[in-house]
Amino acid sequence: MFDRFDAGENAVLVHVDFSDEQNKEDLQELQMLVSSAGVNQLGVITAKRNAPHAKYFVGSGKAEEIADTVKALDANVVIFNHALSPSQERNIEALVKCRVLDRTSLILDIFAQRARTHEGKLQVELAQLKHISTRLIRGWTHLERQKGGIGLRGPGETQLETDRRLLRGRIKSILKRLERVQKQREQGRRSRQRAEIPTVSLVGYTNAGKSTLFNTITEAGVYAADQLFATLDPTLRKIELSEVGSAILADTVGFIRHLPHDLVAAFKATLQETQEADLLLHVVDYSDAQYKDNIDQVNEVLDEIDADEVPQLIICNKIDRLESVVPKIDRDQDGRPIRVWVSAQQGLGIDLLRNALTECLRESMVNHQLCIPAGDGKIRGMLYQMNCILEQKYSDDGDWLVNVQMPSSDWHRMDKKVEHRLSKYVVH
Q: Any idea which positions bind Mg(2+) (predicted)?
């Protein structure tokens, strides 16, 4: 399907330092991604630009330098720390005479290596196919729609059209299978909601220590390693908390700056565990100098998947790498926990984390009496679907007086969905 050079394991890395903050990437992060993919780094080429070059992304002189370096070091793949357009990828490949990958392709490759479950493999394949579909190129050498002679007549379409049709068919098939997986997950979530078991989801930048923390709290034995995207498939475990009882803890895939949109879309079923959670444990590697940027990047992705309304508890992890920092709970003006300082690897502060979890979940339920007008039966129907109505009666005006109890995250999510009519209907 693709007339391209074969990729190898010996890479030349290319990093462009842009003046524009939107296009900025971190070279150290690229090196960690390359290491996680199991690729040997032979050399690094850096450049400075105000904007990407239309043909080569870097300037033509720098592109020649990349070609010379590839030849000198006998590299068989060039990896850019940026997203390239299909034409830029092809133009650079033609010049350097080896495979060229951009940041998105590298992340997809790591995901393909890490996927363990059937669902994870389907999600990665979907993201890869969506990415590949913009990079089909062989059509230009197979433009003949018909050839004369017996046995040589074609299907009446170019090779490019055939490839695209096959890809569309495969994407459609995967989406159907993922839909079934999503329905199974929704059934599990509904049964947990009926049993009133709160769900806590671990989120954070990749390699922040989520899986290590998950193992420390649950003793689950989930694979954890000091590398990017060690966890791909979500894992759920039941934990017991004093005064709350049972709760479900979910370990999820890590986020990264400029996470490809195809990946976010493909992992929708997985990320729904985050979307539907009662509380997010936002794990932050406080030993990383760029921890503030990482927090912003995670919040951006949470906003993208509509999980920004879910309450967060910040977990300041890896305090064993910091001087004079001890396990503690930081609280807001009302005395609610907002940050817990721990070391998941050393097991420091885990008891404090459990206490903070208990406090947050205890306060995460809302109880309201609503006066819903007779003409707004849609909201009443949604409340019934959520199984959160405790009592219902009619007012003298024929309106519904409804007592509801639900997690505050569900309340905020639904209130946003119905344009804040829920808040207006609250009886004070």
A: 211, 231
Provide the residue count of the chain.
428
Please check whether residue 307 is in contact with residue 314, taking contact to mean a CB–CB distance below 8 angstroms: no
**In sequence order, which residues have a C-beta less than 8 Å from that of residue 51 and are 6 or more positions away?**
18, 20
Residue 1 burial by Cβ neighbours in a 10 Å radius (0-12, 13-18, 19+): middle
Tokens 């206490």, located at residue = 355
* Distance, CA of 79 to CA of 328 (rounded, Å): 42
Beta-strand pair 245-251/235-241: antiparallel
Positions at the binding site: 204-211, 229-233, 251-254, 317-320, 343-345
Name every residue whose Cβ is closer than 8 Å to that of residue 137 and which is 6 or more positions away in sequence: 2, 3, 4, 86, 90, 160
What pLDDT is recorded for position 137? 55
Segment 283-297, tens digit of pLDDT: 999 988 888 988 988
- CA torsion, points 40, 43, 44, 45, in degrees to nearest 10? -140
> What residues of the chain score a pLDDT lower than 50?
1-2, 139-149, 153
Pairing of strands 337-341, 328-331: antiparallel
Q: Which residues pair with 15 in a beta bridge?
A: 46
pLDDT, residue 284, reads 93
Identify which of 311, 211, 292, 221 has the alpha carbon closest to the alpha carbon of residue 253. Answer: 211
Rounded distance, CA 337 to CA 83, Å? 39
Coil, strand or helix at 27? helix
Burial state string for 349-368 with b = 16 or more CB within 10 A and e = fewer than 16: bbebbbbbbbbbbeebbbeb
- Binding site as annotated, residues for Mg(2+): 211, 231
Annotated binding site for GTP: 204-211, 229-233, 251-254, 317-320, 343-345
Cα–Cα distances (Å) from 63 to 4, 31, 67, in that order, read: 18, 20, 6
Confidence at residue 229, expressed as pLDDT on a 0 to 100 scale: 62
